[in-house]
Fold:
Amino acid sequence: MGNIDINCEYRYAFKSTWRLRIAILCNIIMVFVSVAFLIRAINQNIEVFGLMLIFGIFLLFCFGAVFLTYGGLDLVVTNDGLSKLFFGKKIQSIKWQDIVLVRRFVVSDGIGKLIKKYNICTNCEKCNRIGFSGKVVFLEDIQDSEILINLINKNVEKYKIKVEICDSVLGQFITSDHL
Structure:
């Protein structure tokens, strides 16, 4: 693990690619189902409350599917920074020089298993809120995660990036010099 070349490009794919496929499928199904319900509601003169309920359920499922999709994108690490790829196309990129904070914390997967989640932030304020701008997010469910963490640690050391770790669901973040 000690002989990682930080001047090369490394691409990391997530082990559970089923998550990405299910999220895309859910998005497609929800769009068709919602359009069908909306057309039926308009044809039957359903009141505004019914339309809002249908639209709210649609947004809820789409919001969840977007997060599942975003979490399952490939991660590319280069000597310039980190990128997220969607079917081979770069959709997000952050330079190492712009990163101010790397956070590792634990989240529950909903069925009792704890998963390590990583936020790589360009702005500490953006790291605390939900959103895609200003941070790269990935889970520990990634191929060769040890190599990825070592590569991030080398760049954390090189660029003097702050690291915070929280190993319990509701615990406090502790500052560290590596992940």
Summary: The mean pLDDT is 78. The chain has four helices and nine strands. The longest strand covers residues 101-108. Residues 18-43 form the longest helix (26 residues).
